[in-house]
Design goal:
The chain is of the alpha/beta class. It has 14 helices and 15 strands. The chain folds into two domains: about 150 residues, Aspartate Aminotransferase, domain 1 (Alpha-Beta Complex); about 250 residues, Type I PLP-dependent aspartate aminotransferase-like (Major domain) (Aspartate Aminotransferase, domain 2).
Amino acid sequence: MRNITQSSKLSGVRYDVRGPILQEAERLERAGSQILKLNIGNPAPFGFEAPPEILEALRAGLPDAQGYSDSRGILPAREAVAQHYTDLGVQAVSPDDVLIGNGVSELISLVLQALVSPGDEILVPSPDYPLWTAQVTLQGGNAVHYPCDEQNGWMPDLAAIESLITDRSKGIVLINPNNPTGAVYSAELVRGFAALAEKHGLVLMADEIYDHILYGEASHEHAALHATETLCLTFSGLSKVQRVAGYRSGWLLASGNREMAADFLEGLTLLANMRMCANVPGQYAIPVALSPASNWSGIAELCAPGGRLREQRDIAHRLLTEIPGVSCVLPGGAMYLFPKLDPARYPIEDDQQFVIDLLRATHVMVTNGRGFNLPTPDHLRFVSLPTVPVLSEAIGRIAEYLESVRVD
């Protein structure tokens, strides 16, 4: 009998957030171990509940959500998204410029299927949210990683990015606030990205799913405000800010020069039609979530001094950086920390195996830095969603393990 093998398209495709480390955690759980899962930004398991007005909107919409919707999404949801960005100052957008998807993840997949031909290049940050690199690779393209400088708060350098642009470059990805580093880019830097995209005729793809999860003086700048001469695609949704990841309710806004992108947008519409539509019940939460009365469901209070997200970020950062040989840039946004392990004290060659060994020894699951397309094996991504006692316990176990493997 001939073996059934995976498609050659999957060669080189990685998604370590749900890869071998998770598989090992599941094996340990089956054997009776309790695992502290700090590998994925899923608010619900850590006690972050959906705002009541969103739950009520979902319940009220169920009778009307039994059939397929328009492949672009229900009109009230698309109207709410268009109005939201209009209120922010984005020019000349309408519900026809909005596509509702099963979270940002599906929309990334659809966009890159429609945009990337074999050999095309997409500029992606390093480190990145690994779905971007995986999907570019799956479409036969090349993810060209532009470095973000840890010594400068994980900020990218626009001149370095421009040096990577070739005649095969099709687009540039801007993840702001960044996952996994939590870096929040200044308005000046975002304007620079837009100018670079316009200069070279690139699609600017702005992943802004964490746009309201901000700490201290951090302020988010929307890329769509600055890209007018080229196509700007803004990705966002309810998963993180509204804490309803399971509703799979995200959106894509096309702004800027849609005329030059008419052929691409036609292809995107074709792909949207082929998957029928996004989850319909979840779409009914969007108008309520984006209404001025929602006050973004209290996310500002959670991120303010004394708020749960802020307190957990601060304590996790302090405890991690108290471990000898561990440093970490303080995140300005999102819900992660990206600590560095001093290579002189922790000479790691295979960071995935290191994280698996850490998991087996401590029953704490984090993700290895190279899983986010960082070139060096000396970082971990650590979710800051658990309560302070759980974070303290988890970091305490990690500290003990690092003490046992440290080279002085």
